[in-house]
Write the structure tokens for this entry.
Amino acid sequence: MTALTDHPDEISADAELDRVKGRNRVLLIVVVVLALVVAGLVVWVIYDAATEPDTGATASEIEQVMEDYRTAWDEQDPEAFGVLATDDVILHEYIYRAVDDGYTAQNFSFSGDRAASLVGSGWQIEHGDEAIVVGEGPWFVTVAETWVNEDTTNDGTANYVLVEQDGTLKVANAYWVGFEG
């Protein structure tokens, strides 16, 4: 036991300063290494997001097919649609209509020549914001769409499946889901 009159062993100020400096160096090294790791991860994420995989189709080619598809609808041109679609194309429509106590749902499917004849039925397509494209073949394109005819406006979302057929991108399937009115 130490009496109050006894003096503790003195620690040299230089030894204490060296101990603190050593600890601070270790902390500095840890902080620098962590900062470099975080910076590396950020660069990797940005690079990964900015590079597109080589899918065989460019974004501009996909955009052109979608623009030509809308033009075929707008001009009511079943022949132009036939060039843009596979022979076994299927168009699916799921529409929800308001009724007194909720909604009622209807779905329609049109394939092949019947799908092309739908193009001449008076409906026009208005696309919303920029399309989202996913895939490396087939490609999946999602876009907000409004279908309009003389007396009805239907808002919804369209999902297209594009495939490469004989070196040309074509629409194989189109799914539209939305609300009438």
Q: What stands out?
A: The domain at 59-180 is CATH 3.10.450.50 (Nuclear Transport Factor 2; Chain: A,). Strands lie at 85-99, 102-111, 124-127, 132-134, 139-148, 153-165, 168-180. The chain has two domains: 10-51, 59-180.
